[in-house]
Amino acid sequence: MVSNATIEAARLRDVGILNKLFIQSVESSFDYFTEAYREQLRREHSKARFLKALCSDRSCFLIARLEGNPVGYSLSRVDGVETGFIHWMYVLPNMQGKGIGSALLGSSQKILSERGVHSLRLLTHDQVEFYRRLGFKQQGYIEDYSGGVPMTVMECQI
């Protein structure tokens, strides 16, 4: 665990940082998607879209910082009466394995729980074991998700 990493709620002034980290994640960690789908993601996740979502009371946007520098993010939201969904989570490749992803997820769970969420879902292509260690259980499998890759549906109770 990185003892001096901080997890904080993203603010309006962080929209540019969120967008930059998102684009970086598409380029460095989501290379299993086709280039066409990654281009679609870049177009659809503009600063304006992040700003709109950030202003929603259903969203939970967190930034992980180390010595003031952004090193990861988590984007989740309340999707139902008692359900939430982790849409995106990313930690810079050189910072992975240091507990930052676990801290982002734990903070997301705490905030969503305070908003009445009892069940949290996500989709993952290649991080099943990471989420399993954190209490998620496989609930299903999508053979041909957008972007042409299989995804595992995972859920945990919070």
Short overview:
By secondary structure, this protein is of the alpha+beta class. The protein has helices spanning 15-28, 35-44, 47-54, 100-114, 128-133; strands spanning 5-9, 59-66, 69-78, 83-91, 119-124, 137-145, 149-157.
Quickly list its features:
alpha+beta, single chain, seven-stranded mixed β-sheet, 158 residues, globular
Word description of this protein:
By secondary structure, the chain is an alpha+beta fold. It is globular and about 40 Å long. A hairpin with a 2-residue loop joins strand 2 and strand 3. The chain is 34% helix and 35% strand. Strands 1-2-3-4-5-7-6 form a 7-stranded mixed β-sheet, with helices on both faces. The model has no long low-confidence stretch (mean pLDDT 91). The protein has helices at residues 15-28, 35-44, 47-54, 100-114, 128-133, and strands at 5-9, 59-66, 69-78, 83-91, 119-124, 137-145, 149-157. Helix 1 (15-28) crosses helix 3 (47-54).
Structural class based on helices, strands and sheet pairing: alpha+beta
User: Gyration radius, to the nearest Å?
Assistant: 15 Å
The helix content, as a percent range, equals: 25-40%
Largest sheet: 7 strands, mixed
Low-confidence stretches: none
Counting DSSP H or I runs of 4 or more residues, the number of helices is: 5
| Beta-strand fraction estimate | 35-45%
Order of strands, widest sheet: 1-2-3-4-5-7-6
Principal-axes shape call: globular
Order of helices and strands: EHHHEEEHEHEE
First-residue to last-residue Cα separation: 22 Å
Extended strand count: 7
What's the average pLDDT?
Answer: 91
